[in-house]
Amino acid sequence: MAKTYYPSVWLVKFCLLTLARFQVVGGEKVPKTGPLIVVSNHLSRADPPIISAGIPRRIVFMAKEELFRSPLMALLVKGFGAFPVRKREADRDALRRAHEVLEKGLALGVFPEGTRSKTAVLQPGMLGAAFIALRTGAPVLPVGICGTEELKGAGFLRHLAITINIGEPFTVAPAQGRVTRQALQDLTAYIMERIAQLLPPSYQGVYDKGVVVGR
Which of 24, 45, 92, 154 is the most buried (most CB within 10 A)? Predict the structure, then answer.
């Protein structure tokens, strides 16, 4: 794990508290210890450090491999202990590392949409977070983040309203044997619904009013 994690988180939190209108709702719901899968909507490249600053747990994020191709971006994401994952395929190495994070009793950060939403509304969830939850039985913590889609330019934080809304954690029984695609789709839909409940209606997208799409 990167030694720069906590200094980086403290710096981000200081900037948020001094420059932005930053609030965390439901922080008391975060389990203090033990493995945890943090699932959130995704609006900005700044979401991982901002979520890390708002949740009092060491979070190791799964990040798309493209971010590690740029030396500067790779330095930043590695500073928060993130590791790469290949999208839209069974990345066994990333799944192994995800299991290792949870076995160490840390929090694993996952964006089920698989990428940032260009419209700020929830996109159909991918199956990775559900697969990890069914394989490990680790508690899942739904999170909704608002406001980071407006992050632009040098004065990106000044007067910006950013809210992290934390839901109740839930657990699913670990799968016995092979995990079926139907089980993955059902749990993915449930995860995305729980995230949607933490967001304003304008952010809920395909999960507004119970309309869900799995993939």
Answer: 24
